Amino acid sequence: MANNKNFSVIGTRPPRVDAAEKVTGRAKYGSDAQLPGMAYGKVLRSPHAHARIVSIDTHAAESLPGVYAVVTSADLLSAEERAARVAAEDWGFLAACDQTLAHDKVLFAGQPIAAVAARTPTLAEQALALIAVEYEVLPAVVDVLDALRDDAPLLHPGLRTRSLAAPSEQPSNVAVYAQQLKGDPAQGFAEADVIVEREFRSLMVHQGYIEPHVSTAEWNADGKLTIYADTQGLFAVRDQVVWLLRLPMSDVRVTPLEVGGAFGGKNNSYVDVVAALLARKAGRPVKVTMGRADTFLGTGPSSGTVIRLKLGATREGRIMAAQAALYYEVGAYPGSLAGSGAHVMFGPYVFPNAQVDCYDVVVNKPPTASYRAPGGTPATFAMEALVDELAEKLGLDPLDFRLLNSVRNGSEDLDGDLYHHIGGVEVLEAAKAHPHYTAPLAGPNRGRGVAHSYWGNWGARSSCTITVNPDGTVGLVTGSVDITGTRTSVAMQAAEVLGLPLERVKSSVGDTDSIGYSDVSAGSRTTLATGTAAIRAAQDVIAKMSARAATIWEVPAESVTYQNGVFAVAADAEKRFTFAELAAQLPNTGNTVIGVANVDVGEWGASFAAHIVDVEVDPETGKTTLLRYTAVQDVGKAIHPSQVEGQIQGGTVQGIGWALYEGYVYNEAGQMLNANLLDYKLPTALDLPMIDPVLVEVPFPGHPFGVRGVGESPILPPPGAIANAIARATGARMTQLPMTPAHILKQMGKI
Amino acid sequence: MTKKTLVSATINGEETEFLCEPQQSLLEVLRDGLGLTGTKEGCNDGNCGACSVLLDGRLVNSCLVLAVEIEGRSVVTVEGLAEWPRLHPLQKAFAENDALQCGFCTPGMLIASKALLDRNPHPTEAEIRAWLAGNLCRCTGYDKIVRAVQAASGE
Ligand code: FES
Ligand code: FES
Fold first, then answer.
1. Taking a C-beta distance cutoff of 8 angstroms, is the pair B46, B61 a contact?
2. Considering only alpha carbons, which residue of chain A is nearest residue B49?
3. Which CATH number fits domain B5-79: 2.40.30.20, 3.30.70.600, 3.30.450.180, 3.10.20.30?
4. What is the Å distance from ligand 2's center to A260 Cα?
């Protein structure tokens, strides 16, 4: 399939297929699930960041009228089962259980302890208040650098640092350590004329989806479980439930409902197992809803970080060497994000010599989860702020300096892999050519900043079926939850291949019983990989219908072609069926046709973005106002340009929130002080200018139409671009996220 | 168990009676009691706007209104916007301008936008941004929402 052919569906901007349901309030989200006899579930959470659970007394809660069930970790795992898992050293399983309902210890404030199902939400909350938990509070460690100290409290006495070498001998709070070395950094710095070096810090931030997590579970009398889930992955929920409840996969059906925002935070399952336990015990369906505070405290934010970075370049502007150390909080349980941060921050430029040390560190905070370009944003901030300072010191234009050092096809990344079919230079050149870059910016305290970023799309596994109806319409089903408009963008690709208008393709998401395995809708993969599945399924439909036409016409299957919506045989003008005509024949010539595809897209496609922002900083208050914003991105091929723009605008604004407003604030005991949407500020319409998206299309060869993943990239550049604009406006360099007025005034030397 | 109160009110133009407990919010009664789940809950403390409804024509967060307070008053939710099957111009504009992604903020945004256009039929961009500052959207960056309101105000 050529990328430059004239498309009839791809590249158009039809209303999304779910628009009518959503603007009328009829769309059913996870939180809208209602089943007959349903009870309401709530979760009791630890107020302490680190504590031993001495006892849990649920009697008073259980005897409150209208309470149907109370569950604790004992309902998840009996003492004997636990002993067996401990004997088998099945730590991953036990940790997952403890994060569902803590057993003997809590490692973060917000960890679930018990849950209640009751007739009303109010009753459930009253019952929670009646559960008596006795804790023995332990010292907590909440700062990533404190957690590295020899005298720091250990979260997991059995945790040994994982690295390429043997696991550490001593227990440690460092879950993962990785080092990358390229060339000879010492030599590289010796050859550099200018060297810059800074330490950057960032706070934990939350995905901030407006719909908190919710799950509704119902057991049938035959022991089969149905979960109505609020998730990015129906199979991820199934797998988690099956794993922790030790059920056969065929006993659990997960039906995804509409998702009120996710951004990586709904890859993980938080309340599905609890809902299932409550529903089993209560003997009725149970809906467990998290409140906003639960969502901040009990779901995975993105890491807080400390990043030390040193860069050296020649007088002519060639980067010669880099040295970086990345310390990422992974929260209370082992995980890893620092490596991703390093990969992303070093992605845009050529580094002949580099040393990178990555530390993933456990602290008494919520276990981190994915958030749009996981691990990348604080790292890109550090790199882009320092690259900008280097350019300034060298007296070079910031975009010219980036262009000079940009990776190109054939460049080597830190791992020694070669870039190919990338659009980094095209993106930088489009930014440079954009009128915004050269527009006059008059007035005091104003500055213009740029930043560049690298990300890639995941591919992975997707499934799609397309059923042909006798009237010539088709039903398309995927296993990919639609969080970004993918029901539409996937259907558009199938429509293009089938030669049908989009209205003839009904697009929906199946449940785990009705569609093949599909990975979570994450990693900028769905339009690309599920789109590929849809293309293959459409091709399968055409192949099967061509074979049917051949049978009807009694000609060899190879002689049937399908073009412009018509099945035909070249040698015989009489033999001709439109799609709809042949579809009408299917029921009486051997039954309908279903096109099927199960794909695993393996290729990593890079996606570059460059942002330009103008700011004005009030020198008295330190308040930053954004005046103008332009976001350039290589999208490969925009299937639905307006949805692509929406991804860029939304991602950019999340990056702006990260840059200026957002962050988890903790006290020393490890309690979050701003677990609400008043004190944890998300950007509002009033804080922003229009975000002007510029789509660059350098086709990605890993997709038949050249699609690149687009969802994640746009969150990466904003903090760096804004920091650089503030630096131009004030003369002071920013080293912390969020760049609060206090930080800006401090860097300006005013406080 | 708390005793329930009988409340009569006009909801989306229809005379409605319901029983509620004194501590129940209008949001809870709309969603769990009356099955009007178009109105969403994002925070339950007045900070997201997902629960926006019109109360006697005024924009309110229904999570901050007690259900018993609406006795004798009139409430409009997203379900009351369309004159079925004709969508409200704002609903059309949101759909046509891709002003929604997950759509969870959309009912509240539509109600808030209607409250604005009812008062000020041709608002400027700055007026739209200021008016919608109480309605959080995490998906769109607001750009296409502002443009949709502008498009609807042109009708
Ligand atoms: S739910 Fe009412 S303002 Fe958020
Ligand atoms: S569209 Fe998702 S919150 Fe607005």
1. yes
2. A210
3. 3.10.20.30
4. 7
